[in-house]
Specification:
Length: 516
Amino acid sequence: MFSGQRFYIQQAGSVSKQQIRLLSAALSKAGAIVIDKIVNDQTPIDYFIADSKFSQFDCLKFSSSNNLTADSPVLAGCQFISVDWPVACLKAHQVLPFNEFKLRSLESVSESKSAEPDEPTSKRRRSAAVVVEEADVDSSATASTSLASESASQSLRLPPRVGAWICAQSSLSTPAVSEVACPANADIVRILGQMADTYGSTNDKWRVYSYKKAAQAVKRCSKPIDSRASAQSLPGVGSRLADKIWEIAQSGRLAKLDCLSSDETVAALKLFTSLWGAGPVTAQAWVAQGLRSLDDLASRPDLLNRQQKIGLKHYDDFLNRMPRSEAGEIESVVAEAVHQLGNGFIVQACGSYRRGRPDCGDVDVLVTHPDGRSHAGLLTRLVTHLERTGFLTDHLVSCEENGDHKKYLGVCRLPLSTNNSGQSERRARRLDIIVVPYNEYACSLVYFTGSEHFCRSLRHLAKRLGMSLNEHALYEGVIRRGAVKVNPGRPVNTPDEASVFQHLGVPYRPPNERDH
DNA sequence: ATACAGACAAG
DNA sequence: CTTGTC
DNA sequence: GTAT
Ligand SMILES: O=c1ccn([C@H]2C[C@H](O)[C@@H](COP(=O)(O)OP(=O)(O)OP(=O)(O)O)O2)c(=O)[nH]1
Ligand SMILES: [Mg+2]
């Protein structure tokens, strides 16, 4: 019946391993060749079979076969079809037409917008109610940034109105932490966030970027979203997300998310990527090998690297956020150790702690010395010291011994805590330490204080101004070809955090206003 | 077509 | 170089 | 996924 036809069956959704075995056997008997693994440079397959609830896109995205794209040679001329088709064919003892069984194609995307040329709602030029997204380049290019670049070629590009950047706004000025400007939009924000999380366990960071950005835009939107068009008028919301947002607004649900959430391989991907040291690629590989649970991982130490073993050991502790008081205790332990190793060191907890968050995922400690020299070689001594006292229990990343290492990522545990019902061991906590030369203090502080989003926004702004910002310094006179640096530029003198903001032309924001 | 931040460690 | 993390 |  299927003589010589090459099939691949995707295990996902309602298609279980067991079912694949049965179906494969039946198909083979009917003359088909069932491929169990798609490799890029093999004979192209004829049929990609999967649960009917998936689209072609989902198949590629969540497939355990890595590096598959729509135009991979193996997929040339391949049909994406629901499992229902071969099942029906076998039952009917004949090859049925598969028109009715095709999975949703990749190209339902085709220009749904005939972009009205002079549409006044075209993203920029909105009513002033919401002017809050970055890279929303307004034509009124003011903001002749005080000390900013003199690079002639760069100044030809319109500098964005700095006020439109995230890093120029206080995180307090917009909806309070985990709230929404308009309660009616809460579902939308929540669901877009869940979509971002879900895609977070795939390799598609730009999709995640967009979902997050759209969620932010909706969060800041002060009126209920009452039409598809009003959704698409939001910055960062295009045609596809507008559809999804509108679906949520009407029904309170998103079929796409319901579908993905109910899939066990997607759940496994999320579980695995929540393990420290495992990202989307590794998670995908484990799922492809049939692993689904932490117990499965524990039974296969050969598949785990050193860091992942530590991650597994402390799986629950690492997912748990500590009260800021505990972060304070940890900072004190580190500070005391540093001060035993020398005088005059600056020791400062940054990250979410410095931003004033009530709870912290880890403790990020920055160490420097005003004399500009004593920082050298400190980190090794510090780690050794803290290890001896039993405070540090595991090392995730410590630059071995090239003398001038700067970063340490590890695990610590505070001494027994005594409460009314006796003594109890405390949780293991993630501890990050950086030791930096004093001339890099300001930029390190900006970097290490975050938030991540705030940092990225600041760096993006710097780039648009012909500058460059990293944890070491702010550089001016940077020349790029596209995104590639041609000339690295020269470091700007930045004695303190405020000077970094100044050079970028944005108002200074204290740490608690950087919690974006 | 290209950018969406930029760096560093592990292996 | 890829992967993962800050 | 979106914007330029
Ligand atoms: O991709 C990243 C991740 C982090 N950081 C900076 C900002 C961040 O604030 C700091 C510390 O990282 P961490 O992951 O500890 O974030 P946090 O802001 O402290 O949050 P949490 O409470 O989860 O630790 O490092 C970045 O610049 N880029
Ligand atoms: Mg932190």
